[in-house]
Amino acid sequence: MNTTPFSLAMCALLALAVVMALAIGAVPVSLDQLGLWTLQWWPGSAIELPRHVQIVLSDIRMPRLLMGMLIGASLAMAGAAIQGLFRNPLADPGLIGVSSGAALAALAVIVLGNTLLAGWMTSFGFLALPLAAFGGALAVTWIIYWIAKRTPGGGQITTLILAGVAITAFAGAVSGILTFLANDAALRSFTFWSMGSLASVTWRDLAVSAPWIVVSLIAFPLLAPALNVLLMGESVCEHLGIDPHRIRRLVFVFTALAVGAGVSVAGMIGFVGLVVPHLVRLSIGPDHRALIPLSGIVGAALLVWADILARLVVAPAELPIGIITALIGGPFFLYLLLRQNDGALNHE
Questions:
Q1: Ramachandran bin of 285, using left for φ above 0, alpha for ψ from -120 to 50, beta for the remaining angles
Q2: Which of 23, 76, 165, 182 is most buried, judged by most C-beta within 10 A?
Q3: Alpha helices of 151-202 — where are they, by DSSP H?
Q4: Which residues, other chains included, contact 147 with Cβ-Cβ below 8 Å and sequence gap of 6+?
Q5: Taking a C-beta distance cutoff of 8 angstroms, is the pair 60, 291 a contact?
Q6: pTM (2 decimals)?
């Protein structure tokens, strides 16, 4: 299938989102000012902008935009890889509890960082939060893998979703205990984790989390050929010299890396890993060599557009971006479930 038209359309959508994200907000920035701000980075440029415009673009909107693009791309790629791994288009890191595990670990560091986890904070410093989120995501991912291997029909989406519900419920219970123990500052942070937001992203947040996310963005496309073979079954993989268990481990590790790094900065942002790969698959087919990178582009565009909506709906205040993605993804997920059930009935 020729993917060029779809690729160009999605790149154009992302480019438009970039311009809109830099221009729209509580402090409006004109296209002329945006163009001058871009030109001033050229060597030898003598262009000067008003101080407030410079601060808004360079210190607030640019790191927020880059972080949104990275998180959207990584969540979408992780969703595409997880769906290919389980051979089910309804699998998603959020639905199977990976995001909940990452958020719980991050919340534990926030609430207990000065008491029980003081040693962890001292040892890892500013890396303590992303490392904890990665560890929580990885732990949940391995639990899901263990369930899928040992439960009859463990690869079925019903089993995975039920496991995700159980894990999310447990994580919610522990989060409730931590909330009870938390002070006012930690309670405000808990609200941030539960709904997701890019509003407070800084260049330091980007410097800490971006390298982890970039590693996953590089790794997922490299795993695409093996995921294509895995769609044909484990025996075919083994005959071709590909270790399916190694592929699973790599997908799990990089999914945990992507989700953990994203959650450590932006909190819980759901449904990106479900909606985007499914839409891209419907548009270009199931070949992971095109599906995974294009899912990254569409995921970046979706999250940036969701962030723009979050700024506009209740301006000058902002909605948490997780609310926007849930409003988009929740009905879409129900549609997919109904469509799958209708297909099953038609085959009976």
A1: left
A2: 76
A3: 157-181, 184-195
A4: 154, 159, 160, 163
A5: no
A6: 0.87
Q: Tell me, what DSSP letter sits at residue 127?
A: G
What one-letter code names the amino acid at 311?
Answer: R
Integer Cα distance of 91 and 75 in angstroms: 12
Helices within the chain (DSSP H only): 4-23, 31-39, 51-55, 62-86, 98-112, 118-124, 128-150, 157-181, 184-195, 203-230, 234-239, 244-266, 272-284, 288-312, 321-347
Place of tokens 């945990």: 256
If one counts every other C-beta atom within 10 angstroms of the C-beta of residue 194, the result is 16
Q: Structure tokens of 137?
A: 């995501």
Q: Distance between alpha carbon 318 and the CA centroid of its chain, in Å?
A: 20
| CATH, range 86-341 | 1.10.3470.10
Nearest to 229 by CA among 215, 214, 240, 245: 240
Taking the C-alpha atoms of residue 237 and residue 221, their distance in angstroms, rounded to an integer, is: 18
Domain segments of the chain as ranges: 86-341
Cis peptide before 63 (omega within 30 of 0): no
Q: For the segment 34-69, what is each residue's pLDDT rounded down to a tens digit?
A: 888 888 877 767 677 888 888 999 999 999 999 999
Within 13 Å and on the Cβ side, how many CA atoms surround 309? 14
Q: Could you give the CA distance from residue 332 to residue 337 in angstroms, rounded to a whole number? A: 9
Q: Decide if 178 contacts 107 (C-beta within 8 A).
A: yes
Q: Which amino acid type is present at position 242?
A: I
Give first-to-last CA distance, the chain, whole Å. 31
Average pLDDT score over the chain = 84
Question: CA-CA distance, 262 to 210, in Å (whole number)?
Answer: 9
Contacts of 28 (CB under 8 A, 6+ apart): none
Mean pLDDT of 329-340: 77
* Alpha carbon separation from 81 to 91, 234, 282 (Å, rounded): 9, 16, 16
